[in-house]
Amino acid sequence: MSSLTVRPGNALERRRALGNLLGVSPALLAIGLFLVVPILIVVAYSLMQANPYGGVNHVFSSDAYVSLLFERQLDDSLAFADSYLVIALRSLGIAAATTAITLLVGFPVAVWLAMQPASRRGLLIFLITVPFWANLLIRTYAWILLLRGTGVINNGLMGLGLIHQPLPLLYSDGAVLLGLVYTYAPFVVLPIYSTLEKMDMRLLEAAQDLYAGRLRTLRKVVLPIARPGILAGAILTFVPCLGAMIAPELLGGGTKMMLGNLIFRQFADARNWPFGAALSLVLMAAVMLALTFYAMRAERLRVARGGV
């Protein structure tokens, strides 16, 4: 009889565990339906044959992954092709350059915002978020009106007599870079500002009392406090830039290919859904590996510092 007796403590723990499971079940269901299931569909598509008229044929094939680095010759042999590797390296370079520029621009802005009186910060943050009120497509088209041969910038320079022919500002890597920096700069400013907003200003006064100059105060006081925001802003900028599609397509004229519009064209123009799915999975896997490596490194540093 004693073996069949349920301890009150165990029953209470089971009820709590069941209640916790029921509490998170809506979130688990949403994650499963809107994250796991779509990824599984993409994985399945990447392992099928492409239908020349769009969609897929439900036949197993790994040609999509082979096509990433090889192309099939007329005799059915495989030859190394670096065209997609070049696009991937260009995407990495532009994403890294965008991240670096947004950090150089966004960090001083965030520091300046943090130094403003509390009564003024709300309005300034509001002004930074105003561009989000307009659709990204509309904002990108506005840059076309500014950068094109008969746009505002070229007409203004020609009107001032500084140039005699329009500058080729549009459809270049510089135009793509400018569009990406404009798009993602707020994603750098806001995380850095959120960390500096909590900074005790007496630390700056203490640094001045110890005869630390502005650069030394910035390096020894401000940067360590802002480091979490800097890392968060870098991730929020670098990862979306790898898959950016609108800026390369419109400001690059479709000739400055990046991974985002390459994937888009596989589904829209080339009708090679398996290859587009394979590209998407490879890009997602690379980003997840990079973020995992960063998280593991950050944890090792935290443990080395005594768990702080």
How do the helices and strands line up, and which of them pair or pack?
Layout: H1 8-46, E1 48-50, E2 56-60, H2 63-66, E3 70-72, E4 78-80, H3 83-115, H4 118-129, H5 136-147, H6 152-159, H7 173-196, H8 202-209, H9 214-242, H10 246-250, H11 259-268, H12 273-304
Antiparallel strand pairs: 1-2, 3-4
Describe the structure.
It is found in: Cell membrane. Belongs to the binding-protein-dependent transport system permease family. CysTW subfamily. It is a multi-pass membrane protein. Keywords: Cell membrane, Membrane, Transmembrane, Transmembrane helix, Transport. The protein is mainly α and 308 residues long. It has a domain of 160 residues: Orthogonal Bundle (MetI-like fold). Helix content is 70%, strand content 5%. The strands form 2 sheets. It has a two-stranded antiparallel sheet. Helix 1 crosses helix 12, helix 3 packs across helix 9 and helix 7 crosses helix 9. The longest helix has 39 residues. It is globular, with a radius of gyration of 26 Å. The two termini are 51 Å apart. The mean pLDDT is 87.
Q: How much is the radius of gyration in Å?
A: 26 Å
| Topology pattern, helix = H, strand = E | HEEHEEHHHHHHHHHH
Task: Compute the number of helices.
Answer: 12
Q: Characterize the overall form.
A: globular
Structure classification:
mainly alpha
Query: Could you say what the CATH architecture of one domain is?
Result: Orthogonal Bundle
Distance between the termini: 51 Å
Class of one domain in CATH? Mainly Alpha
CATH homologous superfamily of one domain, by name? MetI-like
Strand order, sheet with most strands: 1-2
Mean pLDDT: 87
* Percent in strands: under 5%
